């Protein structure tokens, strides 16, 4: 894993744009105090008062950069937004109450009836469900699972307005040439957005590859401790302003100051956590790859997509999956139930290891449509140590014999 030294500084605290007036003293203090707190204070305030009425009126004209009402801007949240923008090498960030609130803000704020969205690669389930809902408002979509440029080009329609990308994608972690796709879209005047949650801003910076909008769920690695739900968008200042007024402020899916504080704390250890997640997940992937009961391991370092890892990813995280040779629900359940050190649950990116399968009781047809094999089991490798987790997987897979 190569982490940019600048990113380590931003994560550790004292990011380049951090305003000392926000990290010490009451809001609006003019002179920087002699000492400042090491942790960002939580501005648990729903509104901010102004020295005179004219100043409040000025604030109304620029609510996207004024601490006026915490459904708009809040100082604690703004420190987080500046850090995430800096990590993605973007101009501006808006934080949301969840990753889905961030996805919704893009769809509702930037699309209109008659527009078409092309989803590229295995896409987070609820994102596709949101797209289904949007058909009621005249917004159409398609899911494109063939990732070569010609197929992608063919899938673009004259009314395609947004290309929504995931690389590495959900469940199978397949990759494609992000730079080429972004430039193809740009030539046609199509907006690009990417769900960059798997990689975190430390391992992939899609804005530098030409993508217009980066989305994160912060509920996974950025928070890192399974105790907060949050999301973020990073883009140009101009588009962020548009999103602020067209959806963020009106949808109301804002991030609470305390949750922003939890994320600031999560960021401080993100580089060290990721280094261990990466190392342990790579060891587990290699071990699974050699196991006779395993048909295939899905990890961005393996398989056809790995050529893209070299130019797009500066490291790997700890989320991977594997496919059982004999993948009925019975076998999938047996392996999951036999694991002692993987919690059975949704989500990922925390310090505790987790296991889940997309294979449910009634969704076999849908899995076939999506190209997801029924024997797929997803692991979020936590920080318990690879030796212990491999031993656990080994005894669980033995139960299949
Ligand atoms: C969890 C997740 C989301 C949604 O984030 P929430 O914070 O749960 O709303 C989006 N994309 C991916 C890839 C995710 O794993």
SSE topology:
Elements: H1 5-12, H2 20-23, H3 53-60, H4 75-87, E1 92-96, H5 99-110, E2 116-120, H6 125-134, E3 140-144, H7 149-155, E4 160-166, H8 178-187, E5 191-195, H9 200-203, E6 213-217, E7 231-235, H10 237-251, H11 257-289, E8 294-298, H12 306-312, E9 319-324, H13 329-338, E10 343-344, E11 354-356, H14 364-370, E12 376-380, H15 386-398
Parallel strand pairs: 2-3, 2-4, 4-5, 5-6, 10-11
Antiparallel strand pairs: 1-7, 6-7, 8-9, 9-12, 11-12
Helix pairs in contact: 1-11, 4-11, 5-6, 5-10, 13-15
Just give the CATH class of the domain at 269-398: Alpha Beta
Low-confidence parts lasting 5 or more residues at pLDDT below 50?
A: 20-28
Rg, alpha carbons: 22 Å
Shape descriptor reads globular
Number of strands: 12
**Could you tell me how far the N terminus lies from the C terminus, measured between alpha carbons in angstroms?**
37 Å
Name the bound molecules. Answer: pyridoxal-5'-phosphate
Structural class: alpha/beta
Strand content: 5-15%
Q: Biggest sheet: strands, sense, closure?
A: 7 strands, mixed
Average pLDDT taken over every residue: 94
* CATH fold annotation of the domain at 269-398: Aspartate Aminotransferase, domain 1
The proportion of residues forming helix, as a percent range, comes to 40-55%
Describe this structure in words.
With 401 residues, the protein is of the alpha/beta class. The chain has a domain at 269-398: Aspartate Aminotransferase, domain 1, CATH 3.90.1150.10. The protein is built from 15 helices and twelve strands. A seven-stranded mixed beta sheet has the order 1-7-6-5-4-2-3, sandwiched between helices. The protein has a five-stranded mixed beta sheet with strand order 8-9-12-11-10, with helices on one face. The chain binds pyridoxal-5'-phosphate (PLP).
């Amino acid at each position: 894993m190569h982490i940019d030294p600048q990113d380590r500084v931003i994560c550790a605290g004292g990011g380049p744009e951090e305003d000392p007036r926000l990290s010490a003293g009451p809001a609006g203090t003019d002179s920087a105090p002699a000492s400042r707190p090491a942790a960002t204070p939580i501005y648990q305030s729903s509104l901010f008062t102004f020295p005179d009425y004219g100043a409040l009126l000025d604030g109304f004209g620029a609510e996207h950069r004024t601490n006026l009402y915490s459904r708009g801007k809040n100082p604690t949240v703004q420190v987080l937004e500046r850090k995430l923008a800096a990590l993605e090498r973007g101009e501006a960030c808006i934080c949301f109450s969840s990753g889905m609130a961030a996805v919704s803000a893009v769809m509702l704020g930037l699309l209109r009836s008659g527009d078409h969205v092309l989803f590229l690669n295995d896409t987070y389930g609820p994102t596709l469900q949101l797209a289904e809902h949007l058909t009621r408002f005249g917004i159409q979509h398609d899911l494109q699972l063939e990732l070569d440029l010609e197929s992608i080009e063919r899938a673009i329609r004259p009314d395609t307005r947004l290309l929504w990308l995931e690389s590495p994608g959900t469940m199978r972690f397949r990759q494609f040439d992000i730079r080429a796709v972004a430039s193809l879209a740009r030539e046609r005047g199509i907006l690009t957005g990417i769900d960059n949650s798997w990689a975190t801003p430390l391992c992939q910076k899609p804005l530098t590859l030409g993508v217009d909008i980066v989305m994160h769920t912060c509920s996974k690695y950025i928070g890192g401790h399974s105790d907060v739900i949050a999301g973020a968008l990073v883009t140009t200042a101009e588009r962020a302003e548009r999103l602020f007024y067209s959806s963020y402020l009106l949808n109301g899916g804002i991030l609470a100051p305390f949750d922003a504080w939890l994320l600031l704390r999560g960021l401080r250890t993100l580089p060290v956590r990721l280094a261990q997640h990466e190392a342990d997940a790579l060891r587990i992937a290699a071990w699974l790859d050699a196991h006779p009961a395993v048909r295939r391991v899905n990890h961005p370092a393996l398989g056809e997509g790995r050529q893209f890892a070299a130019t797009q990813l500066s490291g790997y995280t700890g989320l991977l999956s594997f496919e059982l040779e004999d993948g009925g629900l019975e076998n999938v359940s047996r392996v999951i139930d036999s694991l002692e050190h993987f919690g059975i649950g949704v989500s990922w990116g925390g310090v505790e290891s987790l296991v889940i399968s997309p294979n449910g009781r009634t969704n076999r047809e849908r899995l076939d449509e999506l190209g997801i094999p029924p024997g797929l089991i997803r692991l979020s490798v936590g920080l318990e140590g690879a030796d212990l987790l491999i031993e656990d997987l080994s005894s669980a897979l033995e139960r299949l014999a």
